[in-house]
Fold each of these.
Amino acid sequence: MTNSTPILALEGVHKHFKAGRNTIRVLQDVSLSVTQGEIVCLVGESGCGKTTTGKIIAGLSSPTMGKVFFEGQDVRHLSGEAFNAYRRAVQIVHQDPYASLNPTQTLYRMLSFPLFRHRMVRTQSEARARVLELLQLVDLTPPEDFIDKFPHQLSGGQRQRVSIARALTVNPRLIVADEPVSMVDVSIRVSLLNTLSDLQRRLNLTFVFITHDLAVARYFAWEGRIAVMYLGRIVELGSAPEVTAQPQHPYTRALITSLPEPDPQLTRNKQRIGLRSEDIPSLLRIPNGCAFHPRCPWHVPTVCDVALPELARTESSSLAACHVTAQTAQHAAALAAQAQESN
Amino acid sequence: MTTATPSLPQARRFTLPRLGGIWSAIRRHPSGAIGLFGVTFFLLMAFVGPLIIPEPKVNVSARSQPPSAAFILGTDNQGKDIASQIVHGARPVITVALLTGILTTIVAITLGALAAFLGGLFDRVVNSAANFVLTIPYLVAMTVLASFIRLNSPITQALILTLWSWPVLMRTVRAQVLSLREREYVEAAVALNLGTPHIIFREILPNMASYIAISMILAMTSAIYAQIALITLGLVPLSDLNWGKMIFSARTTGAIYIADTVWFILAPVLAIALFQWSLVTLARSIEDVFNPRLRSGA
């Protein structure tokens, strides 16, 4: 993957919502950079801020604090054509295929509006040819059968493909896919995911893939990275194989061990991590120190409930925000240094 | 795999099968058909009828007659044919109702959609204006207005009526737009940078089309009541013949006390009631015409 300026970067992004007298801190100090052609999965349970992060990346919501950089430029200072370029370069595919397509438009209308608007086609016949091409691209074949249909005539999976085709109309470089398969039938999830990764490879797209399902993340982002979020913060960030094989943060570990494996023997014998509490704390009362400490089995009193852990290197090459793993890593590093000295 | 062969754009262009939609909606709801029939009947009566049926003439030898073969609905105290008066008195009422309905809808949609979209100061100003208008009892205001504005042209009447009818529809349009703009397809349109006019007119308003049509019809019905009230109370110059004037005359000449001339007052009242009922019945079945689910008929 290229190592030039990242296509998109978040730096210390906070997002607060006001609810009456309360302030809900949905995102706190989120930093993440995405390079061209990469797949980054945001994983976490509901309310952890994945979707808000996606919306901020897509420019549909602006951060309360912190900065968003598109190709190294602060998006707040983009204007005119530069802003339009950013808007076109980053597209979003929503979670609910039943809410994301306008029920009053046929697929042709829906997909040709952006083409005309951005002067990518001039005549109706050009537009039609391009729309057919796009439908083909998302595996709605034969496209002639679909082009004049209304959304209500399609299944959930087909609608989701239309949603992807609509995002592709403006030749984007980055697509924020917000749980694109969570609301479609399990039976067609894999084929939808395959279409997405196929598109990613063919068009050299960058994906920010949001999901609550680690199994989906593992499948889709095998060559990419996974960012695990908990209560508005990234708690672990690393390459997909590493995060899933050697989870460093106890929360990631809990998520991984709760995944059912195809082999029942394996699932049964899996070492489950015992959480101290099943309940996610309210966003209105985020615990002090490490937000995970009330549930964490490794909780160290007077450390975890006081100080906020930073994302730091761990024993593996991924980053994790945990006091305990940080200490183990330090300890291991010290041991390694000792071993070297004695040699 | 299938090769991408974009078929040549056929002559089959995208068209809204509106007429077919109306037809299938009628078949699905016979009451809607009755409403449509009623409205068509009244429109024809108002705009074509006067060309066929002669104007009512004063006829001293046939005063206050009960219904008969010559005069289907009898005659009034001047010997004028009541049936013919109904035909000739329809147009002013219906014209003002149509104008008011259209004007109210345009004003309410523009202000409501903009208030919801722009928010801030504009939203507050529009809302305060609406609240202000809603607190003024309109008949009292009309009485005052009528004393120094000549309400004789249909346009002025429609404008004055619109002044009092836009707030209710504006508020509901605003509420609907506020809810629709949060839809994900609107968000997708924002991400695709399609522009605010596109979002309002192509993404949001089509989803409110049936609602708007129904509101327009209902605005027409209230415009009729308001107008008749003004005329019956004598607040509008009585130069033209219309249903309101008929009620006014029937009341002031004591027609309501004579059994033979009861049709003088009953006929306009029934005409208004029937026309209103047709409009409301039509409005009820209009939902289907705009619903793409039912429209496509696939």
Amino acid sequence: MLAFGCLRIGHGERVFVEGPSGSGKSTLLSVLAGVVVPQSGSVDILDTPLHALRATHRDRFRADHIGYVFQQFNLLPYLSVTENVILPCRFSSRRRARALAQSSSLESEAVRLLGHLDMAGELLQRPVVELSVGQQQRVAAARALMGAPELLIADEPTSSLDADRRSAFVRLLFDECGRSGATLVFVSHDASLEPLFERTVRLAELNQARGAR
Amino acid sequence: MTILRLAWHSLRNRRLTVALTLVSIALSVALLVGVERLRHETRNSFSSTVSGTDLIVGARSGPVQLLLYAVFRIGDATNNLRWQSYRAIASDRRVAWSVPLSLGDSHRGFRVLGTNGDYFRYYRYGRSQPLAFSTGGPFDDLYDAVVGAEVADKLGYRIGSELIVAHGGADVGFARHDDKPFRVVGVLARTGTPVDRTVHVSLAAIEAIHSGWQSGVPIPGLQVSADAARQRDLTPQTITAALIGLKSKVATFQVQRMVNEYRDEPLLAILPGVALNELWRLVGVAENALLVVSGFVVVVGLFGMLTALLAGLNERRREMAILRSVGARPMHVFALVGGEALLLTVLGALLGLLLLLVLLWFAQPFIASRFGLFIAVAGLSQHELQLLAAVLAAGLLAGVVPAYRAYRLSLADGLSPRL
């Protein structure tokens, strides 16, 4: 359960959402991604009232404007690395068009993004299940950035990485978000990453729902 | 398109389960279409065996039995038809032509048929096609024989080959007419009917090889040499059956009644088409039972697919969440799982057809020589296509169950699958 008065995130902001498990993180992310709508109140993303849209339109909105990185197991095991990265373009013609504006083909755009995330060469030919967790997360980040969505949501993307890998991964995300001008909402219970961000939202403080910690 | 591609990749990723499911669907489809093909081809083969014959006359038994032994060489006659009765019927003014048939002997597993030259003139098969010789011509001399295409192929007979006729259906040493060898003078072109598997000789020859025989054994001291037999009166006493062609179809029932009420001996005249229908009525029950059973086998195969898809869903909740996160709608998830079912059914059906064609291709010569049935290894008949369409529809229907479950799961899970 999650209840709060107001949370405003500006364009291009990099926000660290900190909260222990059970503080309503996944609910907040589901609301931001348009999977669910709040029982009351409003959700406006990119000047679009998500709460007023039908489920299919919210799905389309997510396809067009939101990149999403899970905690782990981000990739479809039966697709190649580049196919995984191209996946959003299969569901959104807008992101497809934006990817093609950058590169001559979807494949080369995927390879370009992967290259920025230190994924190149022989790694791209490997079956995704043979990649290390860190490599998988970088592929997931490339997928979330494919076609330059305005909003990037990362749900504890570093929790399965080693401590020294975490900040490197976050820096890579920052670089890419900076390049495309995307807003980053980064959720984690790991307070050690907090100093890297310009703003922190503490969910435990924000959430006014009874029973929430 | 994207979804079907994803379904394809996803299936490839689960090769083992998918392969097993495909095999079960393929086998069931092969069985279903195979049964239908066999049923259809058997009927075709039977129907095309006798054409243009208005009546078949034999000793009184059952219509189906008479049809089976006179035309299809299946089973034996319980009684014979006297030559005088045959002559009387044949000379009726309504009868255009008649062909006497005398069965009972065999040659290395093939039936020997005693008849006369009219057989080659009047017998019709398929769409009223007459018999044709691939080499040689009809028998002329007493000990001439004309063999069907299958006989010539199997035994390697050509014009001039010699053959020994055995008494009865079994080819055993002591019951051979080996004192009177026959010479092949003609080989018939292939017809796809029991004619291919028949050795034809003259009625007189049947009489000649049995002179000096009684009750199926040669009587010592009464043996007649091949040449001496030529001097005898070789008019047969009895024949097995006769094919009758009428001048006008209108007279069919009159002549049939005349034969059935024949005073000198109990006879039976049948219309081949009517007797064939009766045969189908008898066989139809078994055929339908087979078809129903193979239908159920398909259902079992599809249930196997349903089980495999449903069992895999829980492990795939993460996959569904990933798809949702990149913008897939719950309907896409539904289509993905449903598409997998469709792909499995289509591939399974294609594989089954291929399997069937390969099986038929290998089994065709065996079935032809063992049962005299010619199964066409060809494209699909309309009924077979309907069966396949039904299988696909059933597969799609079976896919709805796991697809709907995946849809519900995906709606409930959103982006955070509970694993």
